[in-house]
Amino acid sequence: MKDSSKTILLTGATGYVGGRLCPRLLRAGYKVRVLTRSVAKLKSRPWSDNKRLEIVESNLEDVESLTLAMEGVDEAYYLVHSMQTAGAAFAQHDEKLANNFAKAASAASISRIIYLGGLGEMGDGLSEHLYSRQSVANCLASTNIPVTTLRAAMIIGSGSASFEILRFLVERLPLMVTPKWVNVKCQPISILDTLYYLEAVLSEPKTIGKTIDIGGSEILDYEELIHTIAELMKIPKRLIIRVPLLTPRLSSYWIHLVTPLSSKIARPLAEGLRNEVICREQTAATLLEHTPLSARESIKRALHDSLNDVIPTAWSDAGRISGDHDWAGGKVFTDSRTTFVDAKIEDLYKVIKCIGGKKGYYAANWLWEVRGYIDKLFGGPGLQRGRRSTTNLEIGDSIDFWRVINLRENKNLKLRAEMKLPGVATLLFEIESDPTDPSRVALKQTATFKPRGLFGILYWYLVKPLHGIVFDGMLNGIAAEASRLSILKDSSNA
After folding, report:
1. What's the pLDDT tens digit per position in 367-376?
2. Pairing verdict, β 147-152 and 211-214
């Protein structure tokens, strides 16, 4: 039976699963305390003003502060994964954070930890990614606090990293050269079913201390998934050629070039695809009465959400919003440009918020595309990462190879570059009323670059000649689009 008087602790609330679970728990009536490294990023979420939500800035590296943050909590969700932020050392980092969390939970005497891990049988052939997921479960269970571990295979949903890999490969490659894993059996699960099970265990005491396999209603291989995605996307059936010599490393580089995911994320995911991931026990069916969606229905819903720009969270949400680097300071290069726009402030800001993704950069898009391809070749995200929504932005959102680090409605938007650079680059848009003419507004665009070493300085002077094309074109393109939008609105209201 549900006890909505409980206070639930949630980690990973700005990530893919946690960002969808939090509003669900709030709607169910629970009090939710969210731990986050970035309060500003969390407060940009549409549900952050809920009266039952408490936001606490805390670092999982610090057991003492973590223990204080857990005081008064009944149960805690552990939805932390550092694969995207810790690179090759993610496994060791994840174990350290899980041990810290377990110690803090024990010191705070909470009643249970709930963890979302990965399916896969322990053994010599288990990938590092799946082995790490199970190792984290063991670390969380290392104290006297019981742990409920839900184990899932691929999560199908708009914005899910593993699903997006397949979707982009299918969309962009009519001929697919794949490793042997294309015929490995899996039991994918919809994000909707995943969220159901994560919430349902709260009201079922018999799940305490259990390891529960969760999956969709059918078992199939990745080739069948690929053909189903192609069919539902209404594109020709993909030709698949299996090549046994393709290693996870080579696969990850190919995934990096063709999809929005970086090679450091793609490699552990690609390695995990070689392992059969199906449910081995039936606790979910017996204790948590629920009929999960089929893979086909899950894919259909995920594609519908992507097509209709309804993506509440995405794999890229988990990126850090970092401050200055240790070497920041010293020389800072600045390129600042201003233009006056015959448009309403809200129309101008609306246009600025649509930058990147499918919309592009309002001018010289071919130069941006070339820069994106170069970035991909050097291991950066490139332009293919796109954006979660074509019209809405929140702090922490990714826009191609940028990340939103600050925004104030109808005031400003600040982006930090995540492309491969010998320094730190930001791009700031600021809007102000023109005191001499109320019918127009001033748009100021400022690019800054903090170089790292001599090569950083050389890089700035190397690309500076292109600024007149790229930055002037973008500024004037935004102004023209905003003016057009205001004229259209005025004519429709006439």
Report:
1. 999 999 898 8
2. parallel
